[in-house]
Amino acid sequence: MKKKSNVLQIVVTVLIVGLGALGGYIYFSPLFEKNPPHITINNKTYWNLKDELKIDLKDESGVKYYKVVFKDGVNEKVLKTEVLATPLKELSLNLAPPALDLFFKSKEIEIVVTAVDSSKWNFLEGNEANVSFDMKIDTKKPTANVVANSLAIRRGGSAVTVVQVLDDNLESAYISFNNDEEIFALTPFYKDNYYVSLIAWDVEIENFEQVSLVATDKAGNMTKTKIPLYIRPLNTKIDKINISEQFIKNVSASVLEQSFMQVPDDLVDIFIASNKLLRQENVKTIKEDMRKYMDRSAITSFDIKPFLRLDGSRTAAGFAERRHYYFNGEKIDEAWHLGVDWASIKQAAIKTTNKGRVIANKYIGIYGNTLIIDHKMGLGTLYGHTSSTKVNIADEVKDGQIIASTGTSGAVLGDHLHFGVLVQGIEVNPLEWMDKNWIKTRITDILDEAKKAIDSK
Q1: For a 10 Å CB count at each end of the chain, is N or C smaller?
Q2: Are β-strands 230-232 and 152-154 bridged in parallel, bridged antiparallel, or unpaired?
Q3: Beta bridge partners of 245
Q4: Domain 237-424: which topology?
Q5: Does this chain's domain 32-137 share its CATH topology with 143-233+446-455?
Q6: How many CA atoms lie within 13 A of 388 on its CB side?
Q7: Where are the domains of the chain?
């Protein structure tokens, strides 16, 4: 009897151990994972019923079934359902909008997504996820009208446009140059829903295609309106510049070192690193600083005076000169000269022409010690190669104020001022902004024309 009892005890113990092992296996085995599928929708909370609905499904053991249902309170449509022969750990769905009748007016809908994985959990049925997404329907495109704009733009030059943008769910609006090859921000202008933007045709962009006002709402509806501009050619001057070994060793190498860039061993490589690679970084820095720190407050008036040249100076280099650089008789590089160079006495006083706010005061590679002043509406001025400055970041400067002294910092042969005019960080032809008549007919008259058009509505 005692022997039978022992056998029974052993059998029970084995069963308990076995069941425990089985339970542990089921609980911890990847085949029995317990997490339901993860469901995300990429259309946020708005849908225009034109673009595809994008849904992502993820699961450790793989999704074996899903169903997507569209509900609007009246209609209930299955957008897609599928049983997968081979479960997938990641699945992206691009679903076409449902076919709705002409009288569909719902402004809010619900998307219900069900997904089941291939786990053996839940009595081999798998884990199920049911997620509901509330979405707002917006099928109306933004209103995007051009109110007034400059007649023409020259390569390397500037223009202005005033626009109207209206949408309850507006996401973004901007000016596009050549299908977003360059983008210009809008500044609030005069009255609600009106904006102004200065436009630049970057001299680096050879071909002009189109300038457009682009407005997009949160549902993805887009309106693109052409801004009519006549285009003008750019007269360029070709300069042949011979680079000496001394210049490369004393100037190019020094500029690279001060910019914390590696100095190559070869003389030609040193010059190219400074004149091309560093120049690209410097141009990028100027653009980023201007666009980050420019004043974006509403514009009601824009009183800008023609910029004046450095007192008692001669012009050492003009805007958009195409410089070809030679070393030991061989061409090694070429680049645009942007801005104008004015030379006077050493450490000559640099004065502002127009009031503004200092948004940069730092060493910028080939430009040397540089000041950038913001004059509002995306217009700025740049003062390069200075030896000393008399203003600080965020200082408000007055017209006629001495802000710095000329110098030899950066990639220069001698003491001078590099003066640049910036439109949202792009150097444009300063001669336009030094011409009283050009400013009046191309900029301020356009703003006055826009105000009259806005007031007449």
Answers
A1: N
A2: parallel
A3: none
A4: Glucose Permease (Domain IIA) (2.70.70)
A5: yes
A6: 6
A7: 32-137, 143-233+446-455, 237-424
Measured between alpha carbons, how far is 428 from 367 in angstroms, rounded to an integer?
Answer: 16
Query: Phi and psi of 376, rounded to 5°?
Result: 80, 165
| Class of domain 143-233+446-455 as given by CATH | mainly beta
Instruction: Identify the residue whose tokens are 């001394």.
Output: 246
7-17 per-residue burial string, b: 16 or more CB within 10 A, e: under 16: eeeeeeeeeee
Q: Which of 139-142's residues contact partners 24+ apart within 8 Å by CB, and which partners? A: 139/48, 139/49, 139/50, 139/219, 139/221, 140/167, 140/217, 140/221, 141/217, 141/221, 141/222, 141/223, 142/166, 142/167, 142/170, 142/173, 142/215, 142/216, 142/217, 142/221, 142/222, 142/223
Q: Report whether 366 contacts 355 (CB < 8 A).
A: no
Q: What is the pLDDT along the chain (457 residues), one digit of tens a residue?
A: 555 566 556 555 555 545 454 454 445 556 678 899 999 998 679 999 999 999 999 999 999 999 999 999 888 899 999 999 999 999 999 999 998 887 788 899 999 999 999 998 887 789 999 999 999 999 999 999 999 999 999 999 999 999 999 999 999 999 999 999 999 999 999 999 999 999 999 999 999 999 999 999 999 999 999 999 999 998 888 999 999 999 999 999 999 999 999 999 999 999 999 999 999 999 999 999 999 999 999 999 999 999 999 999 999 999 999 999 999 999 999 999 999 999 999 999 999 999 999 999 999 999 999 999 999 999 999 999 999 999 999 999 999 999 999 999 999 989 999 999 999 999 999 999 999 999 999 999 999 999 999 999 8
Topology of the domain covering 32-137: Immunoglobulin-like (2.60.40)
Query: 97 to each of 40, 52, 155, how far by Cα in Å?
Result: 17, 6, 44
Backbone φ and ψ for 398, nearest 5 degrees, come out as -105, 160
With beta carbons less than 8 A apart as the criterion, state whether 367 and 382 touch: yes
C-alpha 378 chain-centroid distance: 15
